[in-house]
Amino acid sequence: MRRITVFIMVIVILVLINFQIYQKEQLLTEGSTILLELAPVDPRSLMQGDYMILRYKVATLAEAKGAEKNGFLVMGLDENKVARFIRIYDDENLQPMEFLLRFRKRGRGINLGAESFFFQEGHARFYNKARYGELKVAANGDSVLIGLRDENFKFLQADE
Fold first, then answer.
1. Sheet containing 32-39: which strands, arranged edge to edge?
2. Which domain holds residue 47?
3. How confident is the model over 111-144, as pLDDT tens digits?
């Protein structure tokens, strides 16, 4: 009986993990591409290797507007697909060309769910010029970070 219980639990866990992977894959293929302007942060961690902690300017604006709990930011896009903060969502109808971006309130800060960008050790020089985080955003406000771009909107990657 104990073996059957363990087996069922393992199957349930695997199904849940695979469902989450499926959801992220759907977001990557069907999500809209947006760029979020970055605010500077130190990109080093002795314990985790090279990575960049990302801080978004829209998160700072939302904090200033008094975001008190988890929710959504209402965003708009400019001609370069750079997202701009419009307001904190309050169950009102969205205007044309507006979309939602989910956030979570953590301590005193706002987390958009894409605050770390990991890269191979020794490749920091390729990402030092990052000015925008490139995200895929689903209609429900979920997002995933897919890369970084420079001030000219060029996709940054290590040249090997």
1. 55-56, 32-39, 132-137, 143-149
2. 32-149
3. 888 788 888 878 878 888 889 999 999 999 999 9
